[in-house]
Amino acid sequence: MPPPKDVVKIAIQMVGAIPQLIELHQTKPLASVLKDVCDAWSLPNAERYALQYVDGRQTYITESNRREIKNGSILRLTTSPDQEAERLYSGIQSNNSDVKTDSLKKLASLSQDVTFAQEFINRNGLKQIFYIVEEGNATGEMLAHTLKAFMELMEHDFVSWETLSAAFIKKIVSYVNMNAVDASVQQLSLSILENMVPTSRLLFELVKKEVTLDRLLTHLQVTNAQLQLKAMALLIALLLAATDVERRDMMGYLREKNIRQFIHKNIIHSSEPLGDEMAHYLYVLQSVSLNLCERRMRSSMDPYSQEQRELLQSLRQTAFESESEVPASNFSTERRRSLCAKEFRKLGFTNNSNPAEDLRRAPPGLLALDNMVYFSRHNPSAYSRFVLENSSREDKHECPFARSSIQLTLILCEILHIGEPCSETAQAFYPMFFGQDHFFEELFCICIQLVNKTWKEMRATQEDFDKVLQVVREQITRTLSLKPTSLELFKIRVNALNYSEILKLRQTERLHQEETLAVPVLELRERLKPELLELIRQQRLLHLCEGTLFRKISSRRRQDKLWYCRLSPNHKVLHYGDVEEGVHSAPIESLLEKIPVADMKMLLVGKECPHTKEKSSGKQNKDVLELAFSLVYDVEEYCLNFVAPTRYEFCLWTDGLNVLLGKEMTSERTQTDLDVLLSMELKLRLLDLENISIPDTPPPVPKPPSNLNFCYDFSHAEQ
């Protein structure tokens, strides 16, 4: 007979004693359970003891988390959190450096537990940590343990970062600014400042003033990958917390210091593989840099602005005045106005008498004007060739430079997500972005010439304008998906993907679609679906067995603990547990937490997940909502919360968990994989029918003959 649901069978260990095997009644007060355990070992003062997990993070058992204890759990009888906090509080004040170091090391480990952290903070333990740091006598290992303990204690949000003293902050800053400091101390100091920056404007200003960008750039140039990562994390935190004006100034200074070229050479193309965390920071740096264009993108042209009018006139002058034999200033006002209007029409403005009207639409606003001026100044020969070549064509066949530039700028803004908030988890950056100053403008210069090339290949007229720009968008997105490492490589590939290539790709896709829409083929698809869906199910379960590295995302900061989760080979138990930074695959034996598949109840995704409800809503968390899912398990309906590293992992894990729950796979990836497999299978089966049209309906069966007397009689033939 199975035990009641409120009773779990567990083992309890104690150093130097024979373990006890007991049945823990969850309705019985924890104090009574401890009294019984202590009595069995003849230990007095049961209130001085507590139960703690042997494995994993060694969390203390409390009334609030006792329901998480599973059958077969191994616990340890240990000193209670309040007694341990008192002992370590005394230990870190010891005059014996060995005792002090050991106490700080133990403190750094135990501070991960929320119960212990509360007890230690209640004893004013943080004040003692502040004193150790401010005093300045601690160095090396002792200081590293002190800072680690401080980080873990602050992680629980019992104390506000704004309560930190100026002396403590200055000391942390000094560890970052000094050269002769242990690398582990500098890493922890950078992490502390990174956590400090988003919490208040005052702390942001203090850190920005004390830790210069030059100092962070120095840390980025070291060979220690972890120190490099922490420096980049602080730089990104400062950029995200800054106002628009401050961010613009900071990015301008970083541009002067050639940070892009350094990142391109020493981080992206270093011998070490790029980690997920660094990839995210590079994505954010790219996004912040591109979003500097947003202000111009959302600003309409002001026809009364002298500066903007001069920029507009410079486009006309660069293209036409150099070839004019008679200066325009020699003409009358009316003649000059007529000549300007004609030249603006040749430039491709739709409103040639008042070209500023074309730039009133925002987006792309003034950003389109900036791009046109940049192209005319940095590629004058290509600019003149574009304009003069088209002004010599028939009116209906000319490619309008200005109109194309305005629409192309809008397309590039959409493709590069300019004006959108940074994602909290994305890692997709373009390596070529870091290899080129004025990336957006240089990309425009390549693409506007592509517009002219495609226009000629399509033999387009003014009516085909939208079609041409649609083809150009496709050329750009298809090329960017190949992740070219430099703009030069992008230029080669995008020009190779000419209009005829686009037509071939479209034709192939269209033929494939038409082929698969015939009624007999659709019937065959339906017959093949169950077999292929089973194949996808097996692949999903295999992926769960291989496991995935997940990152816990707290409400305060992105960087947090790593944990690994994988399914047992027999598909009966889900194993998970915390892992250290740098671990890419954890063996199943090292994952100490378990959830039997039989206990799994349901899967929650997006807004339904408890860990997304805790976070503040807003655009910033949209990407987290798209990657979040929770597994509800056990009678008490506990939740194991996930935030997938990518949408791909989200699809595979939600599908796999749905398979284990006996439900349908619902992710978009399932449909994509099914379409690919069906396409391959159908092509193989229809190989013999190539170039044979498949009728929509089967041919009719002929009527039976009027008589069946047409059988040949062999016996008569032999005679």
Structure in words:
- The strands form three sheets. This protein has a four-stranded mixed sheet. Strands 5-6-7-8 form a four-stranded antiparallel sheet.
- It has 719 residues and is of the alpha+beta class.
- The chain has 30 helices and eleven strands.
- Helix 5 (125-135) runs antiparallel to helix 6 (140-154) and helix 6 (140-154) runs parallel beside helix 8.
- A hairpin with a 6-residue loop joins strand 1 and strand 2.
- The protein has four domains: 7-79, Roll (Ubiquitin-like (UB roll)), CATH 3.10.20.90; 84-285, Leucine-rich Repeat Variant (Alpha Horseshoe), CATH 1.25.10.10; 298-321 and 334-505, no CATH class; 530-671, PH-domain like (Roll).
- This is ELMO3 protein.
- Residues 307-480 form the ELMO domain.
- It holds the Pfam family ELMO_ARM.
Strand content: 5-15%
What class do helices, strands and sheet pairing give? Answer: alpha+beta
Main beta sheet strand tally, sense and closure: 4 strands, mixed
DSSP helix count?
30
Give the strand order of the largest sheet, numbering strands 1, 2, ... along the chain. Answer: 2-1-4-3
CATH H-level homologous superfamily name of the largest domain: Leucine-rich Repeat Variant
* Average pLDDT score: 86
CA(first)-CA(last) distance: 87 Å
Reported CATH architecture of the largest domain: Alpha Horseshoe
The CATH class of the largest domain is identified as: Mainly Alpha
Question: Strand tally, please?
Answer: 11
Low-confidence stretches: none
Radius of gyration: 35 Å
Question: What's the number of domains?
Answer: 4
Sum up the overall morphology in one term.
Answer: flat
CATH topology of the largest domain: Leucine-rich Repeat Variant
- In which range does the helix fraction lie? 40-55%
